[in-house]
Amino acid sequence: MKFPLLITSRDITLTKAIETTIREKAEKLATFSDRIINCRVVVCSPTRHHHKGNTFNININIKVPNTEIIVKREPREDLYISIRDAFDAAKRQLKNYTRKQRGEVKLHDFPTHAIIQDLKPNEGYGFIVTHEGREIYFHQNSVLNNRFDKLKVGTPVKYVEETGDEGPQASSITAI
């Protein structure tokens, strides 16, 4: 392991098997980022209900440059499932951190504006025309909030362009 790992427990004695499981899962985190400075895992059993068995919380703090990844999971009755779920969440957050650091964050399409040019209400589709004069097909299912029947020729709309089977098509259409 390339980074220091601190495992602590509260209200529970950790067995060698539990510690080994935590160490193995922490080592796997290094495959998702080589920028981990340190990792702290806290295992606690906060409540002891007579009707239920013991519950276990796993908290993970991972220090990376410029931030800290913190995972706090809901209590579970099975310690190994708690460990698995907490490390799965840590893995997801670490992957997101790494993507952001590499500049690989997905850019979302922003709606653009157009005007309804043609409607075929009986067939459930229509066409919009963009400001550049391009004609783009849309299906009634692409109109948000089931408002296809409210559209009229000449209505300005916002949409997101996608590539369909037969060329460009509009989705997420909303009347302005």
Describe the model.
This protein is an alpha+beta fold and 176 residues long. It folds into 2 domains: 98 residues, Double Stranded RNA Binding Domain; 64 residues, Nucleic acid-binding proteins (OB fold (Dihydrolipoamide Acetyltransferase, E2P), Beta Barrel), CATH 2.40.50.140. The chain has 2 helices and 9 strands. The strands form 2 sheets. Strands 7-6-5-8-9 form a 5-stranded antiparallel beta sheet, with no helix packed on it. The longest helix has 24 residues. The radius of gyration is 26 Å and the shape is elongated. The chain starts with a strand and ends with a strand.
Number of strands: 9
The count of helical stretches stands at 2
In which range does the helix fraction lie?
10-25%
Distance between the termini: 55 Å
Spatial arrangement of strands, main beta sheet: 7-6-5-8-9
Tell me the Rg in angstroms. Answer: 26 Å
Architecture per CATH nomenclature, i.e. the level-2 architecture of the largest domain: 2-Layer Sandwich
